[in-house]
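TASK: fixed-backbone design
INPUT:
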C-alpha cells in the first residue's frame, strides 16, 4: 500500500504538469484574447488538483492542510426598485452581478495564485523526492505534505476572513444564548418569585383587614405569610444560582461541580486536575454544561451513577462526563445538548458524543487555549529518525544544490570545456539538463525537509475518538 501511494503521488505529478500546461493556455485565452469566461474554468481545475493534495496529505501523512480560500461572495440582492447592482451598473437579472462577484472573488484571492505557483513547482519537487520516495515512502510523503502546506495552507488574508466569519457566527450564537438566558430568568421570576410575592402581598392585605375584628385569623394568616416568604427566598436563591452560583465564584469550578454532585439524585464521582482556575466565563460555561449533562443523565437516561473528569492538556480544558444510563443521546433530539453547544461556541469549544442505545453515554468537551500559559506544557523532543534526517539534510544539501546543480548549470550554459568534478557534464548530452534539474530539486527538498521536520510535532487527540461536533 505504501509503494502504491508513492506511485500514485508520482503519477499525480503528471496530472499537475498537464494542469499547468492547460492553465497557461487558459490564462492566455482569458487575459490575452479577452475570453474572460474561461478564467473560472482554469481556477476550478487548479483548485481540484490542489484539493486532492490536501485530502491525501491528511489521509496518507496526517498533515492537515486547511482550505485557504476566501469566503464565497453573497448572492446579489434585489434593490427596492427591482434592479440588481454590480459596481456602478444596474442589471435586470442577478446572473451578471453574480458572475462578476464570483470572477472578482477568484482573481483577488491570494490562494488562487499560490495554487497556481504550487502546480508549477510541485512536479519539480516530486522529481527531486522520487529517489527517497521509493526508499522511504512514508517519510517522504510526509515531507511532501509539509512542502505542499507551505503554499496550499491559508494565507493571512484568508485566515483573517475566516476569523471574522467565525467571530460573527460566535457573536450571533452568544447573543442568542444570552437572550435565551434572559427569557429563562424572566420566566422564572414571573412564574415563581413574582407570583409568590403577589400572593404574599394579598395575604398581608387580608391580615390588615382581620387584625382588629379577628386576631386569631390574622395570626394564622401571618404564619402563612411567614412560610410564603421563606419559600419566596428559596425560589429567589434558586434563580440566583441559575445566573451565577456563589460557590462557583468563591471556590472555583472543581468545588462547584462537586456541589452539583452532592445535590444530584445519582451517585456522581468527580475527578479534577486543574492546578489553576480558568477565567470566570469559561468556568461558568463548563459548570452549566456539566449541570445540564447530569440533569439529562438522571432525567432522560435514567442513570444511577456518573463520573465527571475535569483535566487540562497544553492549555486546553478537557471535561468528560460518563453515565450508565440508557444511551441514545442525540443533539438533533434536543435534550439540552444544543444549548451546551451554544455555550461552548463562544470559546471555540468542541463537543464529542458517544451514546449507543443501551448506554453508556460519554460526552467529552474541549475548550482550546483557555488556560494560563505558564502551565500549558512543553513540546516533545524531536524523534530520533527526524533528528538524524535533519542532520543529514543540513550536512549534505549544499552538495547537490550548488556544485552539482547551480554551478554545474552555469558551467554548461557558458560551455566550459573542463568538466572538473561536475557529474552532469560526464553524462550523455540528452541526460545532462534532466540531471541538473534533479540535483537542484534534490538540494532544495533537503533544505526544505531540514526546516520543516523540526516544526512538526503531532498533538495527542486520541481522547477525541468519539463522534465529534464542532461548535
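OUTPUT:
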Amino acid at each position: 500500500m505504501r509503494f502504491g501511494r508513492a506511485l500514485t503521488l508520482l503519477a499525480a505529478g503528471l496530472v499537475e504538469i498537464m494542469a499547468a500546461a492547460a492553465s497557461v493556455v487558459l490564462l492566455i485565452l482569458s487575459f490575452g484574447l479577452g475570453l474572460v469566461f474561461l478564467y473560472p474554468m482554469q481556477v476550478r481545475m487548479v483548485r481540484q488538483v490542489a484539493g486532492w493534495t490536501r485530502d491525501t496529505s491528511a489521509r496518507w501523512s496526517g498533515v492537515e492542510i486547511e482550505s485557504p480560500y476566501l469566503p464565497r461572495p453573497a448572492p446579489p440582492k434585489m434593490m427596492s426598485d427591482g434592479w440588481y447592482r454590480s459596481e456602478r451598473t444596474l442589471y435586470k437579472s442577478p446572473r451578471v452581478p453574480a458572475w462578476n462577484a464570483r470572477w472578482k472573488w477568484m482573481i483577488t484571492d491570494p490562494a488562487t495564485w499560490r495554487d497556481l505557483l504550487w502546480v508549477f513547482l510541485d512536479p519539480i519537487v516530486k522529481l527531486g523526492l522520487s529517489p527517497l520516495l521509493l526508499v522511504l515512502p512514508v517519510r517522504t510523503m510526509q515531507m511532501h505534505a509539509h512542502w505542499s502546506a507551505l503554499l496550499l495552507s491559508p494565507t493571512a488574508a484568508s485566515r483573517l476572513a475566516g476569523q471574522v466569519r467565525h467571530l460573527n457566527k460566535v457573536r450571533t450564537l452568544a447573543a442568542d444564548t444570552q437572550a435565551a438566558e434572559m427569557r429563562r430568568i424572566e420566566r422564572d421570576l414571573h412564574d415563581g418569585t413574582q407570583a409568590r410575592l403577589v400572593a404574599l402581598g394579598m395575604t398581608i392585605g387580608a391580615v390588615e383587614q382581620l387584625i382588629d375584628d379577628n386576631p386569631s385569623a390574622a395570626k394564622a394568616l401571618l404564619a402563612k405569610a411567614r412560610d410564603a416568604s421563606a419559600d419566596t427566598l428559596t425560589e429567589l436563591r434558586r434563580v440566583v444560582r441559575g445566573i451565577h452560583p456563589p460557590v462557583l465564584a468563591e471556590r472555583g469550578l472543581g468545588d462547584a461541580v462537586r456541589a452539583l454532585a452532592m445535590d444530584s439524585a445519582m451517585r456522581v464521582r468527580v475527578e479534577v486536575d486543574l492546578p489553576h482556575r480558568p477565567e470566570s466565563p469559561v468556568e461558568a460555561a463548563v459548570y452549566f454544561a456539566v449541570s445540564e449533562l447530569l440533569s439529562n443523565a438522571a432525567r432522560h437516561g435514567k442513570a444511577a451513577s456518573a463520573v465527571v473528569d475535569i483535566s487540562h492538556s497544553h492549555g486546553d480544558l478537557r471535561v468528560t462526563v460518563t453515565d450508565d444510563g440508557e444511551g441514545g443521546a442525540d443533539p438533533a433530539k434536543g435534550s439540552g445538548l444544543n444549548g451546551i453547544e451554544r455555550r461552548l461556541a463562544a470559546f471555540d469549544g468542541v463537543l464529542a458524543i458517544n451514546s449507543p442505545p443501551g448506554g453508556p453515554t460519554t460526552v467529552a468537551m474541549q475548550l482550546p487555549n483557555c488556560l494560563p500559559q505558564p502551565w500549558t506544557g512543553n513540546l516533545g523532543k524531536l524523534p530520533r529518525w527526524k533528528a538524524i534526517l535533519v542532520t543529514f539534510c543540513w550536512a549534505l544539501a549544499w552538495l547537490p544544490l550548488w556544485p552539482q546543480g547551480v554551478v554545474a548549470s552555469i558551467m554548461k550554459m557558458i560551455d566550459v570545456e573542463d568538466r572538473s568534478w561536475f557529474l552532469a557534464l560526464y553524462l550523455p548530452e540528452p541526460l545532462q539538463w534532466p540531471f541538473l534539474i534533479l540535483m537542484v530539486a534534490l538540494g532544495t527538498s533537503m533544505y526544505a525537509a531540514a526546516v520543516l521536520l523540526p516544526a512538526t510535532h503531532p498533538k495527542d487527540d486520541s481522547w477525541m475518538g468519539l463522534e465529534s461536533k464542532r461548535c
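COMMENT: The mean pLDDT is 81.
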